[in-house]
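=== Structure Prediction Worksheet ===
Name of assembly: unnamed complex
Input type: mixed (protein and possibly other molecules)
Chain count: two
Listed entries:
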Amino acid sequence: MKTQKTILVVEDEKILRDAVVDILRLKNFLPLEARNGNEGVEVALKKHPDLILLDLIMPAMNGVAALKKIREDAWGKKVPIIILTNMSATKEESVDDMATNKSTQYLIKSDWKLHDIVKKIEEILEGQDIL
Amino acid sequence: MNKRLPASASNDIILSLKVLAREKEVVRRKLAVTAAKLAVTAKKLAATAKEKESVRRKLAVTAREKESVRRKLVIVAKKLKNSYETLEQKVLRRTKDLEMSRAKEEAILLSIGDGLLVTDEKGNITIINKRAEKLLGVESKDVVGKVFSDAMLLVDEKGKPIPPEKHPARIALMGNATTVTGPVYYDMRKDKTKFPMAIMATPVLLDGKVIGTIKIFRDITDEREIDKAKTEFVSLASHQLRTPLSAVNWYAEMLLAGDAGELNEKQKKYLDEVYRSNQRMVELVNALLDVSSLELGTFVSEPKSTDICKLAQDVIDEQKPQIAAKKLSFSFLCKKRTVRMCVDPKQLRMVMQNILSNAVKYTPEGGKIVLSISFADKKSILLKISDTGYGIPKHQQDKIFTKLFRADNVRDKDTDGTGLGLYIVKSIVENSGGKVWFKSLGEGENKGTVFYVTLPLDGVKKSIKNK
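=== Predicted Assembly ===
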């Protein structure tokens, strides 16, 4: 039997965080929650989740800063991170940041179904297992 | 005579008288000769006198003439003096006028609200205006005559100096450009502060020869702030608008999927309506955000070498469920297996998506859609998307690319749409230096439409900030 994968959900909007956490549980993942970038970095470095879903616009450290922080860590360098945001990637700087800090995916929440996000997570984790 | 005189005495007297008479004769003769001579002399004198008289007369005439000439000369001299004075006045006036107009021109140049720097053909500064002095933190007396780079030290965003050959003024001096507008440069002042500037350098041409340059520049700190605010607005608005939409989407999706238990048919149907309406809202928000990005000029264009046919195939694949649902016949023709060109794939995808989804949406069941990609000419490619759909009513054809416009015939047919798709298409295509147009097939409606898009092969113009 496969071990349960832990997924860290960094999202400041409770209503959205709850939805993601619910579907992850339903799909047999072990969700961890963080309400902002600070918490996100803290939980990530402490619990070493298998994958991180990261929002961008959040109070107390935004997603881009959190992404940089996590990538600075030896373990954090390799963890797959999916940017799950509603912010259009029109800001040149943040797009550059995404590229230099190697986010695995950039998904717009309102364009993605929860089930498709889960599929994406599964794909990425499977790809990692093969490696 | 005395009768008592002896005879001898009378003889003596007679002799003496005779002698006297002879002498008298001699004298008379001499006198006669003298008289004749005198007469000749008199004649000569008379002739001389005549000549003299004639000369005198002539002299008199000459004197009169001289007088007349003198008088004339006096008049001419007077006139000359007058005209000299007028001329002098005129010259003075003209000089004054010229000085005034020169001063005016100089004042105009010096008072231009933007920084102005004029150089000669060697790049040495000849004029610097007040604004330029202020912007660059220099004084005219310190920089006039010096090479422009002394007064203006251009650096990039990170403070790295711009090499001289890339300096807009240098490019302008080469004379091979009419106007050189550089990207954003920063000027490093002596006090090490810098400001972003928009700079325009133009060669000054005289008889086809470059005799210098004019540089106009301004501080664009404010514009950049506004730009930043615009970008932030779009990002934040997108974030704020999409968050509640995402929540509705996700919860409806989970309910519909039975993640929270099975729903009955009616509940499913109602919830499906909620979900689909929300999807429309998402589409509308996305389109509105694209439009505001385009209009605010924050739409970031990132051209890169892109396989157009593959991109088209991806767009088609996305539409496949709808194509299948409406039983449309669909064909895709790409002239070469791969056509690579330098475009922003995201933007081109939007163009294709919008035109193709329109074709699918507005073609009734069983219709036909053809997408082809070929070369319009050596310099551009041509995208052609034809359908056998409802068509565009003739009287509304001129409005079809207008923002939020939807034609009457499709509004009647209960199809959903934002009225933004073709507006976005036109904006993107025209920003890329391409063209979009369409042709109605046959007379009247319901015969179909062909949309054409051309895009230049040499890549798109870099994104249009601050239109």
